[in-house]
Design a protein that fits this description.
Blueprint lengths: L2 E5 L19 E5 L6 E5 L2 H4 L5 E2 H9 L1 H9 L6 H21 L1 E5 L4 H20 L4 E10 L2 E12 L5 E9 L7 H22 L5 H8 L9 H9 L7 H14 L7 E8 L5 E7 L3 H15 L14 H4 L8 H8 L12
Parallel strand pairs: 1-5, 4-7, 8-9
Antiparallel strand pairs: 2-3, 6-7, 7-8, 9-10
Helix pairs in contact: 2-3, 2-6, 5-9
The chain binds iron/sulfur cluster.
Iron/sulfur cluster (SF4) binds next to helix 3, helix 11 and helix 12.
């Protein structure tokens, strides 16, 4: 039986949307090699937003328009109300689908490690289901690309009639027709990232210290009583966060779960709940890595934020930030006003 555990922890979330803007422009001071001269270093976006990891959806949103993704983080109230309604309805539909195959249990958490323990328990609980050839929904995945830790949730993993492991991503749409090519491209990138991370996980690349080092978690941290009780109920006896990480690593590497063979995206109309169409996505590892490298270069402070190129300027027409967008203004002034390398396609 599958469980999804959700957190009641009210600790600091990995989100910047509630951060005061004044705190976003700090600079860090660094000692020089000689230890005498102090020089100032601008914060990377990861530091500026206090992020120790990114979500796969951060990168797929970024692939639509990086500047828009940044505004969405800093100025969420400017988001169009219809976008917010669409997102909330999409979340409810996902939850309803999840409840078809899961029980949701509330567990109280007392530390950051407890919150991560929940994600790991959710992952551990689906491994036997996949091993037995079953279908799972809302599967958490974690991994590292370009030294940045990424997390995501796969909507659904099932075996096809041919016995291939198939990822299915559900996209609900406000309009009753299939998305444009550009929207599909963003969704393709998202599912390719899921496959990239999932495959690395089942191939044993998610070692316990990868998680603790990137997220700055303490393996020796004792787990809260409710976490331990829940772990016991689903068959795991654990005391510390490190115990759970070891269990996860062993279960993933010793399981014979294959890599994902097939990527599918199902588009359905939100209001009528009718299927609009299904896209099968080709996975090209080198291209996925190159794209991720380019987007992560922004997060690591290796290049400036970029908006859309002139051939995609049509995206600005429906953008909530078009009135205030610096990139758009500079583009109107001429190419010499902009800096930074061209975005790779
Ligand atoms: Fe991106 Fe255009 Fe919106 Fe600016 S106006 S954030 S360039 S889509």
């Amino acid at each position: 039986h599958q469980f999804t555990v959700s957190s009641l922890y009210s600790g600091k979330a990995n989100s910047s949307s509630d951060l005061p803007l004044a705190s976003l422009n700090k600079v860090l001071t660094e000692d020089s090699a000689a230890g005498k001269v102090k020089r100032k270093r601008a914060q990377t976006p990861l530091e500026k937003y206090y992020l120790t990891y990114l979500c796969v959806t951060d990168l797929s949103t970024q692939s639509w328009c990086e500047q828009q993704m940044v505004y969405g983080r800093e100025l969420p109230p400017l988001q169009a109300p219809e976008t917010v309604v669409l997102l909330n309805t999409g979340k409810s539909i996902h939850l309803a689908r999840e409840l078809e195959v899961h029980d949701v249990v509330k567990v109280h958490t007392t530390s950051k490690e407890d919150s991560w323990a929940i994600k790991i328990l959710n992952l551990l609980s689906v491994i036997p289901v996949l091993q037995a050839g079953g279908c799972v929904r809302e599967l958490p995945v974690f991994g590292v690309i370009e030294d940045v830790f990424l997390t995501g949730i796969i909507d659904e993993l099932c075996y096809s009639a041919k016995g291939e492991l198939e990822l299915r991503e559900l996209k609900t749409r406000g309009r009753p027709f299939m998305p444009s090519g550009a929207q599909k491209k963003r969704d393709y990138f998202q599912v390719c990232l899921y496959k990239y991370i999932f495959d690395a996980m089942v191939q044993g690349q998610l070692k316990p210290d990868v998680i603790t080092n990137h997220i700055q978690l303490r393996p020796e941290q004792p787990l809260g009583s409710q976490i331990r009780e829940h772990a016991q109920k689903v068959g795991f006896t654990v005391t510390s966060f490190g115990d759970l990480l070891e269990l996860m690593y062993l279960n993933l590497t010793l399981s014979d779960i294959p890599s994902i063979d097939c990527l599918k995206i199902e588009y359905s109309h939100q209001e009528s709940n009718t299927l609009l169409g299904t896209e099968v996505v080709r996975f090209e590892e080198e291209k996925v890595r190159e794209k991720a490298q380019n987007y992560l270069a922004y997060w690591k402070g290796q290049r400036e934020v970029q908006g859309v190129e002139i051939e995609e300027a049509w995206k600005c027409q429906s953008c909530s930030y078009s009135e205030i967008c610096d990139w758009r203004k500079k583009r109107a002034e001429g190419p010499e006003q902009r800096s930074g390398p061209k975005k790779s396609k």
